[in-house]
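Question (not urgent): is this output format expected?
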Amino acid sequence: MTFAQPLWLLLLLLLPVLAWFYRRAAMERHVALQVSRQQAMRGVKTWVVYARKWIQGLRWIVLALVIMAMARPQKKWFEQKIEAEAIDIIMVMDVSASMLSKDFMPDRLTVAKQVASDFVTRRRYDRLGLVVFSGGAFTQCPLTSDHRILQAFINNLQVGRLKDGTAIGMGLATAINHLKNSETKSKVVILLTDSENNAGTIGPLQAAEIAKALGVRVYTVGLGTEGTVMSPISRNFNGSYNYAARSTTFNTQLLEEMARTTGGQFFRTKSPQDLEGVYTSIDQLEKTNITTTNVRRTLELYFWLLDAAFCLLVLEMLLRWGPLRVITV
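Got this back:
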């Protein structure tokens, strides 16, 4: 703690002098009562007598607090101001019915949402957005620095809002459309899908060529295991799905070619731990450049002293004109 105007503290040196003069004047005004023996006054003194001797001390404390408030006590500290060269990242997530397959517990989509949300938490200084696709694609959340909003969108992702199918190229093209006007040096797409492309008017490799031309790097993530898994086979009128064991295969060649074309990487994930490792790897590959500066902050504390002085002054007046009141005759 420091004082903005410390010269006012010199007035504190006058308080002992003033107290001495006040006490001397009070003794001269004191009325003496003579008694024949000292034993006659024993038992007469009460707490009021002792308290009256020290009531004036409250006033001196009030003056001291006011003087200290005039010196303006301050609390000073330094904050770090972070200037980050942020990266624009669009996450493109498959929400086709196959994402409800139960080779991940409870299903692929739930695990993908959890890991994506954790990734958003780590990218503190970047702008991120979300595109979802199945038979078509749309922007769930445009690029934003408000990561809480983005995480809410991720957590509310559901299967069945788009027509069924897997339009990988449409999902990537929608993300590129948001990044084409970005002024950041690094523009990244993280595309996650669990099956092969079978829908859309723009092919995956065509979209990858567009991404390359615009300087967008694409990381592709293949999600799911091969073999027999419990997967949706039909949908009921109430929106629920019927499941049955299905044999699944995964062709990684397309996703590898997309990543290679744009200068990104392809990742194959067969477990939740693999998926977490993928996002961790991408987090390390796409570093944000950060510079920090120290910002000086000041908090004024004088009003606390004035509040304390006011309370003590009120207390002193209540005591002086209440139980400690002196009646002169």
